[in-house]
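Researcher: Re-running this chain for the archive, since the previous output was lost when a drive failed. Same request as before.
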Amino acid sequence: MIWSPDAEQPPPADTGGKRGRKPAPISRTAGPSHRAWLEPVRGFLFASGLTLNDLVDRSGYSKTRISELLRGNGYYPAWEITFSVIRALGLPAGPMRRLWTAAAREARKEPGWIAHCIRQVAAEPEHPPVAHQAFTETMARAYTDYAQAFVLTDHRARWVVAETFDLLWLCWSEAATSEDIRRYAWRLLRDRVMARADRHHDGHPDLRAAVFSTTEVRETEPGHLVVLTELVDLFDAIARLPYDQMDVAVLRYLCGMHPDRIPQVLGLSPAICHAIDHHLRAALEDLLRPYSPRE
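Model: Regenerated structure tokens:
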């Protein structure tokens, strides 16, 4: 049940039963990694029809502590109470444990505290869906290339992609019944990348630093600023495009992906991708016109 204003996800499907009341909003103090697992957990609770009292009965923790966990309020929750909540909701422990651990580090919890929390709950064998494993193997390289354009280092890109794949496993039943699982997963990846991308003051992502990883810059003679300046303007213009246009531009022109591969990665038809590519070229011309030398 991943949802964000930019993720373009549909609301959870109706379960046929009476839904519980939506939890109070997530605290603004919750970091990106904390929100990454908290949003789907809240979505699953709401879609399940369980009330807060039901969750209290199933987890064995007080209403106050469960409420704080669901809001991301107060201290970062221990793994034991987090595990009790996801077990009550029927969510897989393996990906949640990794997501919880990443968020604990983000919250600056000591490694000893994290290890102690995890030891309190016996680890379970991980059995990801076979289709999920096949999907992640197919998409890993393309996803990592896209993420690296925004977060710059290979290590950070792989970390964001791993987070995406764990969230996809967490929501696999919803993803598998969506209109196109490739589209579902791509929107999830983009959401996680945008949560960590550097941004300009006006809110759009900042791609300018990606210029220095391009072949044109690496092969340009030192001190040759024309190519560098032109690429900075181009990358900044790409980052100002609507998301679908930006995605196609990044994959094709920054990552060097073959046009035939892009529809498979984005979960769009070849015709739609071709139309997007056509429109983004015109949009880039308009955006770059102010930077063109005056006649």
